[in-house]
Amino acid sequence: MGGAQPLAVTMNDGAVLVVDVDESRLARRVDHGYLDEYTTDLDHAVGRVLAAKDAGEALSVGIVGNAADVFPELLRRHRAGELTVDIVTDQTSAHDPLAYLPRGVAFADWRAAASDDPEGFTERARASMAAQVEAMVGFQDAGAAVFDYGNSIRREAELGGFPRAFEFPGFVPAYIRPLFAEGKGPFRWAALSGDPADIAATDRAVAELFPEDAALHRWLEKAADKVHFEGLPARICWLGYKERHLAGLKFNEMVASGELKAPIVIGRDHLDSGSVASPYRETEAMADGSDAIADWPLLNALLNTASGASWVSLHHGGASGSVVRSTRGRSRSPTARRSPPRSSSGS
Ligand SMILES: NC(=O)c1ccc[n+]([C@@H]2O[C@H](COP(=O)([O-])OP(=O)(O)OC[C@H]3O[C@@H](n4cnc5c(N)ncnc54)[C@H](O)[C@@H]3O)[C@@H](O)[C@H]2O)c1
Residues enclosing ligand 1, CB less than 6 A? Predict the structure, then answer.
């Protein structure tokens, strides 16, 4: 489980079961309001989720367990007609096999087992990922919508010996690229004042700018209530071509009039088109076959620089690629030039 998933489902009125081997992670998510409840009893967890689903209520339930055990067990119940699963994905840190706990290894032994024998641990982790991904493909065969969340689990499962791993799609070709095709992309901003009231004011301004966009309004309301700021207060929205500049101009006005206490930094996201070269994620299944061409972030950085962005950063994308991020607009704050602020919305 990653933090985003339970909240993403309940924000859209769904009922979800999330699995994590680390009970402290589940407890922390409950403390932060990202997860509603958790248990160590799978029957209880499944019962709670199915009851919420039947009642049409939003609910997220965590189960302490290993996904490589729980996914096949849920598939068995799905096939037996004991439950119906509509959507399946995974957000374990599968891109790093040492950060994925193989089944049969006790949680308390994780660190020691990974450091004593990293190669053996990697093999066991990949074999477990193969079992988990086999169950995910099984859910797809049984009619569920299944997608890779961008953690490279299909590749690791393939290395672990499961040949059908790539039969379900990555989330970018399945859901994100069609939005790019419409000109919609991530648009995010941070308040250099550090005052959450400035983000609340920009939330209101963006909602007023786009009164017809029901999904945007829903997100802005729920995010203001549920998403905690880390570092500088920040917000992300998916806005379209011919919309993003309107938000930027509005922010300029609000800074100039003193309605906002300090400038706003407008940034982009690694999911923005052309920002990452990553054949198992952002550039998977490109229509022109350019999945593994590393030039996209370089070209994007050059383009942003030539277009007058005030801050362009080109950096390694951690798990799976190179990333470019840029800011536009009139922020000339020394803070923005010296050290990029940590934004709290998305990754
Ligand atoms: N699509 C995106 O834009 C996007 C965004 C963020 C992260 N990611 C990817 O998602 C993955 C997770 O990122 P994160 O920041 O949430 O990491 P994280 O470390 O916060 O969460 C991963 C969780 O997986 C759990 N875990 C490990 N092995 C497990 C197992 N066998 N069964 C059940 N749980 C297990 C860990 O206990 C941990 O809580 C990474 O690969 C990352 O690259 C993708």
Answer: 1-2, 19-22, 25, 66-68, 91-95, 100-101, 149-151, 319, 347
User: Tell me, what's the pLDDT at 290?
Assistant: 85
pLDDT lower than 70: segments of the chain = 1-2, 273, 316-347
Closest protein CA for atom 11 of ligand 1: 93
Strand partners, 186: 238
> Exposed e or buried b for every residue in 5-26, given b needs 16+ CB within 10 A?
bbbebbbeebbbbbbbbeeebb
Question: Pick from 176, 125, 133: which is nearest to 154 by CA?
Answer: 133
pLDDT value at residue 313: 81
Give the helix/strand (H/E) hosting 179.
helix 177-181
Q: What is the pLDDT of residues 108-126, one digit of tens each?
A: 999 999 999 999 999 999 9
Question: Is this prediction's pTM over 0.85?
Answer: yes
DSSP letter, residue 44: H
Structural domains for the chain: 4-175 (3.40.50.10730), 181-338 (3.40.1770.10)
The separation between the first and the last C-alpha atoms of the chain, rounded to the nearest angstrom, is 16
